[in-house]
Amino acid sequence: xxxxxxxxxxxxxxxxxxxxxxxxxxxxxxxxxxxxxxxxxxxxxxxxxxxxxxxxxxxxxxxxxxxxxxxxxxxxxxxxxxxxxxxxxxxxxxxxxxxxxxxxxxxxxxxxxxxxxxxxxxxxxxxxxxxxxxxxxxxxxxxxxxxxxxxxxxxxxx
Length: 158
Ligand SMILES: Cc1cc2nc3c(=O)[nH]c(=O)nc-3n(C[C@H](O)[C@H](O)[C@H](O)COP(=O)(O)O)c2cc1C
Prior knowledge:
Layout lengths: L3 E7 L4 H15 L3 E6 L13 E7 L11 H10 L7 E8 L9 H12 L3 E2 L4 E4 L6 H17 L7
Parallel strand pairs: 1-2, 1-3, 3-4, 4-5, 4-6
Helix pairs in contact: 1-4
The chain binds flavin mononucleotide.
């Protein structure tokens, strides 16, 4: 299994980007090579068999993916590529004040990636902006477990 991680960012106001940078920092600390890619201008061809992805994505509108992630999401739905051999995790940002559509963008990505044959690693992190916690801090904590599941590497205690 390769020890590289591709972190894809879907954001409107930057929170998911902070989460991605924190995730990359945590990965690099345990020798997992990580690159952070904003989804702007990308499409479904970014997904390659044998690679592990972490999607850091917020929810906008009424349960929609952010504008910068639409190209990736919509080409997954339309082109239906075979994603066997692709592994992914999700950091999903939302706000429970949007009760009907809480963290829906992450759910949309999870559903379409799984439907196309990709394998989800670990539990999805759903961060609630109304919780009073910082999404990048929640991501840092969640990464310890997720990195162990994805790469069998262990984060030393702080
Ligand atoms: C106009 C607007 C619409 C939103 N719609 C939703 C929504 O439908 N569901 C949800 O869970 N969060 C929703 N949110 C909350 C954001 O997803 C949340 O604040 C997130 O942390 C933003 O992350 P970002 O800075 O990476 O874009 C919305 C926020 C705004 C400003």
